[in-house]
Amino acid sequence: MTGKECKKLYVEGAPGYVLNLISRSGVKVIKPRINEKGCTFTVSDKNYLKTCKLLKTNRRKFKLECERGVLTSIVIILKNFGIWAGVVASLVSIFIYFHLITSIEVKGNSIVDKNTVLEVVDDKIKTPLFYFSEDFKGLDDEVEKIDGIAYATTRKEGRRIVINIVEELPEVATIDTQNPKSIIAPEDGVIMKIVVYGGTSAVGVGEQVVKGQELIYPYLESTEGERLKSVAMGKIEIKTTRVEEIEYQDESAFNSSSAKDVERSIQNFKLSLKEGEVYLGSRFLVKNVDKKVVVSIYYEVITRVA
Amino acid sequence: MGFFIDNFKYKTTLIGNESILIEGHRGITSFRDEEVIVRVRGGSVKINGRKLIVEEINGEEVLVKGSITTVEVRV
Predict the structure, then answer these.
(1) Which of A6, A9, A11, A20 to mutate to test the interface with B (most CBs of B within 10 A)?
(2) pLDDT tens per residue, range A150-169
(3) What is this model's ipTM?
């Protein structure tokens, strides 16, 4: 009852008479207490007017002591100011936290960008929850998910968070110096650039090559025509053309969806490019075959061979 | 623990020795720290004890709390 709106009344005169008078009228009287000249009791807000009317009719002296109980007051205060109190408490805790953690330092990175690491950890670290839980293991797991990071350890040094990372080593191709091999063209194309670091160049710039053709020989030729074994090394750029065809049953199908299909195909093609491949551009050709319409998309790509 | 006297059309329920609920009362005759007298049809119920307080009262029920020592039914 104390949780609801209620009113506390003081009535002078015989307490028993007053209580019987009120209770018989159907009003619920809560916590009646006798004092020197009368009694106090509580009635619900709903019954307050009825009680007053009854007391007036019976010529009783009474007064309103209190609008509500202590508990009700607390509930009302919390209802009115609880949200604000919560907001203030959160702001204070965030403020305290931001002043507790002054900086985040990333150590041991040479390939992986520091900002990439900070982006991952920033949201996680700068929360009061982290301050209380100090879940460094979870943080390490998050950092280790970043491409190129093999291992991470996080620790707190005073007001600093230090993240030590160990990067994954780039894959090193093993070169057989005893039995060196030629550098081979991975697909048909035109040589755009060739720089030889080791071995002898087999092709020149502008030359058409086919898949499997030797580009750099694994030997050096002396002036006397003698061949010396050498590891074939160099950088070669081959311009290649790849073709994709989209077939439509008739012209109406072509008209309705070809524009979107071509655009989608180009996007997919760009995404499918491997490391060392650079997209130059594309062109397309439309052909009518019987009633069908065939769209051929020609993608131009630079393939780097090393 | 409780008992119901059908003839008198009221019901008294005693819970431990800490509270007593009287249903079908006809008003309070007196209430003090040591004694509360409640009128019922055909008589009265006198509750003796210490620190007795009337917790709630309405037209039908009266709930008395405190350290109850005896309950006397007067007919």
Answers:
(1) A20
(2) 888 888 777 778 888 888 77
(3) 0.78
